[in-house]
Amino acid sequence: MRRTVHPIETESYRIMRSRADFDRFAPLTRAVVERVVHTTADPSWTGEVVADEDALRQGRDALLSGAPLITDVRMVASGITAREVTIGLDFPGVAELAASEGLTRSAAGMRLAAREHPRGAVWAVGNAPTALTELLRLAETGELEPALIIGVPVGFVGAVDSKAALRRSGLPAVSTLTERGGAAIAAAAVNALLYWAEPGGNR
Amino acid sequence: MRRTVHPIETESYRIMRSRADFDRFAPLTRAVVERVVHTTADPSWTGEVVADEDALRQGRDALLSGAPLITDVRMVASGITAREVTIGLDFPGVAELAASEGLTRSAAGMRLAAREHPRGAVWAVGNAPTALTELLRLAETGELEPALIIGVPVGFVGAVDSKAALRRSGLPAVSTLTERGGAAIAAAAVNALLYWAEPGGNR
């Protein structure tokens, strides 16, 4: 994807690279980590993001070939302007399914979205640990085969455990190590994959 | 505003309060700082937020009496579900004004929004330093009299300076001290004001 990079963004990347070392990362991993740090203006995120280069490539290929991109909440989708996004919470019947099955609405949204897109989608969870846990359950039962799960829910309750479970699952994944995460992080990871240009990184 | 607090949020606040001390803050300031930490799951934000209690009260009163709430970008608006939000970038003519005046589109959006809402609005800038700088210019020339400016743009370029200028301006304000900020922070500050309940804080 070609895009025009604003001079402010170019200057931001220059300053960022003077503050933290990104050379240790493989190309797509670097693109994701850099965009997260650019988005947060916080170099401490360089030690926080866990990603597998092959998984990222698979996710990027899926995104570029038009695979569905599904987020848990609207705020993640709002940060992605370069392509269409499906929001789990927007599926009809979310509230009813949540009530009848004792799920959070975010988890119910993921279940409904997975019924419609069981294979090859890219999933980006930026808010609810319960949404990520539901994706892992669906993958475990064979109802879901994702191209990539960007699992960066945030919070003091359940977020760390859900992201550790994602890493243990062996699914193609991006995650963060601590309680930190969020919609901006999820959107940054997606955008990094969308914007990346061979071979010189995402500039 | 009465709202139902999910058990996960209650547990999150309990954990958060065991990790950082919020007792030093005045009530509305505390509500803002707590919601920022809850949103980010990062207690280091307790030392980052600068707010004036009287300014927050004025902003809250404005929000509750139906004053316009204007954000720079859609991602801030997406984090606010409890009331209507106007987005600067959505004003017709933003691209043309930006091109003709040499402004960023975010700054052009603020200028157009200020023409429509010159007095008594609450402004929340979560992305672009240039949007905040434009608000300060408009206030300086007397074209803008805000009830509250939540100025938390993020980034390595201009964000720190624009927030320092906001604090120097004497305008009713919330800001952050470092390069950190963002849409989630802006939305959290607005939500803290909307959700706060006298007299026991925002629970």
Offer a few descriptive terms:
9 helices; homodimer; 203 residues; 6 strands; six-stranded mixed β-sheet; alpha/beta; Rossmann fold
Structure overview:
Two copies of one chain form a homodimer. Chain A is an alpha/beta fold. The first copy, chain A, has a single domain, classed as Cobalamin biosynthesis CobH/CbiC, precorrin-8X methylmutase (Rossmann fold), CATH 3.40.50.10230. Chain A is 49% helix and 10% strand. Chain A is built from nine helices and six strands; from the N terminus they run ααβαβαβααβαβαβα. Chain A has helices spanning 7-19, 27-40, 53-64, 74-78, 94-101, 105-116, 129-140, 159-169, 183-195, and strands spanning 49-51, 69-71, 86-87, 122-125, 148-151, 173-176. A six-stranded mixed sheet of chain A has the order 1-6-5-4-2-3, with helices on both faces. In chain A, β2, α4 (74-78) and β3 form a beta-alpha-beta unit. The model of chain A has no long low-confidence stretch (mean pLDDT 95). The A-B interface holds A 8, 11-12, 15-16, 19, 38-42, 73-75, 77-79, 104, 154-159, 178-184, 187 and B 8, 11-12, 15-16, 19, 38-42, 73-75, 77-79, 104, 154-159, 178-184, 187.
User: What percentage of the residues of chain A does DSSP assign to strands (E)?
Assistant: 5-15%
Contiguous low-pLDDT stretches of chain A (5 residues minimum) are none
Give the count of helical stretches of chain A: 9
Rg calc of chain A: 16 Å
Summarize the model shown.
Chains A, B: Belongs to the CobH/CbiC family. The structure is a homodimer of 203-residue chains. In chain A, 49% of the residues lie in helices and 10% in strands.
